[in-house]
Backbone:
């Protein structure tokens, strides 16, 4: 990974760290606490978690995706989102496979809120306004990441995932929001179980991937 900062003045820099970008788009956040908000998504390449039901397997191999500098990414976000700035969601792949210090600093300096969606399987880097931790059984989160979660979002594929969800609910901070989200292809089977589970355990809330219902990316 190339990281090179060139000082221009005492107050500005060009940041030329290269990051593999699978796709980027302006849409509505479809999941979790910020559901329904306009958000610019940047999907970074690279993931070694290996979820069998992953719906973005094309993101796994970072080497096949074009690299953009941090400045190019930030300029792209500025040019293609609202002039009021707002939310930028860094997702993947597993975005914490990369050092996100420079990217988040540049986004925040440009006036954006920085959110991440991560499995937590790699060390935390970056400055985040909101961290959505989605722990995966295929490669568990690092204990060092878990306490920083603002939101715990557990994908429910089968009944045993409720136990997995409770394991991490016991480890996050008391302020952390708790969400259960049906795996898309299993939704018709697991959603009724989830409704009953949440009725019995009201500390949890249901997260639905509304972007898939309203047909936006
Ligand atoms: S962590 Fe995310 S990108 Fe990686 S395999 Fe799992 S669902 Fe796919």
Residues:
């Amino acid at each position: 990974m190339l990281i090179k900062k060139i000082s221009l003045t005492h107050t500005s820099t060009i940041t030329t760290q290269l990051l593999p970008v699978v796709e980027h788009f302006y849409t509505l956040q479809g999941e979790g606490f910020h559901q329904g908000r306009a958000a610019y998504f940047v999907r970074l390449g690279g993931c070694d978690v290996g979820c069998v039901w992953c719906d973005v397997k094309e993101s796994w191999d970072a080497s096949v995706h074009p690299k953009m500098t941090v400045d190019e990414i930030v300029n792209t976000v500025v040019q293609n989102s609202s002039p009021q700035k707002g939310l930028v969601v860094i997702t993947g792949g597993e975005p914490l496979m990369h050092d996100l210090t420079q990217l988040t600093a540049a986004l925040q300096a440009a006036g954006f809120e920085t959110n991440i969606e991560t499995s937590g399987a790699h060390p935390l880097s970056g400055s985040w306004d909101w961290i959505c931790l989605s722990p995966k059984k295929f490669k568990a989160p690092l204990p060092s990441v878990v306490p920083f979660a603002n939101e715990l979002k557990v994908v429910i594929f089968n009944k045993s995932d409720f136990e997995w969800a409770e394991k991490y609910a016991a480890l996050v901070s008391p302020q952390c929001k708790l969400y259960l989200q049906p795996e898309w292809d299993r939704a018709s089977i697991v959603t009724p179980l989830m409704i009953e589970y949440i009725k019995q355990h009201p500390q949890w809330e249901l997260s639905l991937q509304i972007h898939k219902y309203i047909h936006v990316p």
